[in-house]
């Protein structure tokens, strides 16, 4: 793979209309960022769980604040890499006219990286998968292909994000977001179909990145950018190199920010967090600086900022040093897993403590269990109603699905996707409210 082909301002759904004007104030990739930040799916992230239940009396991060922070870190990672290239070759901009836009591409992709995540975090994904593997949805297996069934029983937020950004929803226009090819490719952590996903031996097949319905679209992008193809059946590509920077920005933010939120909620003590983050600060003056601050939250804010700065530097340097291996598609680990000691060990310890003490905390587990019940309950009502709309009750249920999701197709897979588009796009609060109302637990107010 090479940067000349990998960086493209061609737009999804508007390929024939691309005519970039160099006099414009915004680049094509800055337009991607702006389109995302003003979009409805992005706004809905404010009411989707990151880790801790929402809302609460103590501020914790939601999917929206997380995505904004990831975008900020991602922009720094991309800009530092570009600066390093330019130090080596002052003519790099002439050879690669779009290379200076790497920070903007990564930043836009970071904004979009969680758009496909359903309500209740990863338990929402698991609940959707469970409906088809161990619940009432199992009966639909005979109505879809093997590849389509693999999509349903392993519902993947990454693939759902690509669908949201490229699918021609009714009334939204073919181009939908009309993002650039490079931004779309930079979102795809796992550029393979579901039949190839879940192979942990390769970083690009740990999960999957597109549904069967979007496979041809992803292949078109991959061919345009000349992503390295691994196999045709099942369809597998190697990652676009900028995926590594998007992934690193996400890894940096959630690992560090979850500690900060856990301290605010008194799950971890100040001394717990201080010990973990001091290992990453890479600043011998830090203990003295902390001694001058009285407020524990302010101390942790300083520790968080210095830790993120250290990790940005380490990941950008690794990306630069391993550029050839990454372009060849042979770098088989995340940047966070490849940074030097003592930072790598410190991050592994943070990940271990997060698993044991944060992600297994009672309120976190409760929201996961509740999410299972709510998401499963919605699917058991809406899926059979939409596939077999043959009664007054089911017609009323189908009327609740927004028209943009409705399909004219009679294909069971596409009709199931209609329901998944609707349910996976819900915020936590809306999903709970709708579940309670259609189950008769509560009644809508009449104004």
UniProtKB/TrEMBL annotation:
<dbReference type="InterPro" id="IPR027432">
    <property type="entry name" value="dGTP_triphosphohydrolase_C"/>
</dbReference>
<dbReference type="InterPro" id="IPR050135">
    <property type="entry name" value="dGTPase-like"/>
</dbReference>
<dbReference type="InterPro" id="IPR026875">
    <property type="entry name" value="PHydrolase_assoc_dom"/>
</dbReference>
<dbReference type="InterPro" id="IPR006261">
    <property type="entry name" value="dGTPase"/>
</dbReference>
<protein>
    <submittedName>
        <fullName>Deoxyguanosinetriphosphate triphosphohydrolase</fullName>
    </submittedName>
</protein>
<dbReference type="GO" id="GO:0008832">
    <property type="term" value="F:dGTPase activity"/>
</dbReference>
<dbReference type="InterPro" id="IPR003607">
    <property type="entry name" value="HD/PDEase_dom"/>
</dbReference>
<feature type="domain" description="HD/PDEase">
    <location>
        <begin position="59"/>
        <end position="264"/>
    </location>
</feature>
<keyword id="KW-0378">Hydrolase</keyword>
<dbReference type="InterPro" id="IPR023293">
    <property type="entry name" value="dGTP_triP_hydro_central_sf"/>
</dbReference>
<dbReference type="Pfam" id="PF13286">
    <property type="entry name" value="HD_assoc"/>
</dbReference>
<dbReference type="GO" id="GO:0006203">
    <property type="term" value="P:dGTP catabolic process"/>
</dbReference>
